[in-house]
Each structure stands twice: as structure tokens, then as C-alpha cells.
Amino acid sequence: MGIVERLVPDGLWEVFQDVAPEAPQRPQGGGRRRCDDRAVLAAIVFVATSGCTWRQLPPVFGASWQTVHRRFADWSAARVWAKLHRVLLDRLGSKGDVDWSRCVIHSISVHAVKGGPDGAESDRPRQEWAGGPCHLPPQRSADLSGRLRCQPA
């Protein structure tokens, strides 16, 4: 089993194909052959899980970092990740495999009434949001497959 099949198992690949848009066709035909979508998805998973930058992407996926990033941007614009998340939650939920007792509501997503529930202003000085709940650098996984490592830029 290769790195692509380990990062994108058959079950995930089948679900992904249902939510991913069709590959665009060139009206005039010809052009370069499109990189394999499964390999590109595996490269995206590798970047997301290893902490590699796009430019450090190992060449074993058969696509350049530019192609992988472009496909990631295209799929993001098509809301593929949200659709995939919804389908996977629905499938897991129908099997009873989702433990909602561990559900988290992110505080930035929930509107808080100004001044609290009774409308009284607090004595504390107001703090501005700094961009997110935490700004920790991603951990760099030494390797996912026992052989691959992020390549220096």
C-alpha cells in the first residue's frame, strides 16, 4: 500500500468523489493531462497533518506544490470541505458513532450580548480579539510513512 492509499483510504475516496466537482474540460481539447485527484487529495492531507508548507511538499505525490495548492483553492471555493464534513457526520451519525457529549461550540461563533445577560457593563477593560483562540505553530510530524519528511524550501 502506497502513501496515497494510506492517506486517502478507499472509503474516504468514495465519499470524496461524491462531493468533489467534476474536472473542468478544455473546450479546445488537448493540453496537459490532469494530475490524479486522489494523489492531490493525499498531498493536501499530508500538508494538513504534517505541518509542511506547500513548498515543502515531497515529490512522491506526483504533483507540484502549485498544482496541489491550486486544487485546494478550487475545492475550497466549491465548498468541498464543508460538504465532505457534512456527509461524514451524517454517515457516522446514522450509525450512532458520533458522541455529541464531547461537542464544542467555539466562542467566536456564538454572539454574546454586549455587557452580559443583564445588560450591565463590566468593570474590566474591553480586550480586542487577537485573531483566534490560540496561535501555536503547527507541530511538524517527523514523518508519516516512516520515510517521508518535509523538504526544506
From TrEMBL:
Insertion element IS402-like domain segment(s): 9-85
Top-level taxon in the UniProt lineage: Bacteria
Sequence segments annotated as region (Disordered): 114-153
Signal peptide: none
Family matches, as Pfam families: DUF4096
Protein name: Insertion element IS402-like domain-containing protein
Record organism: Streptomyces luteosporeus
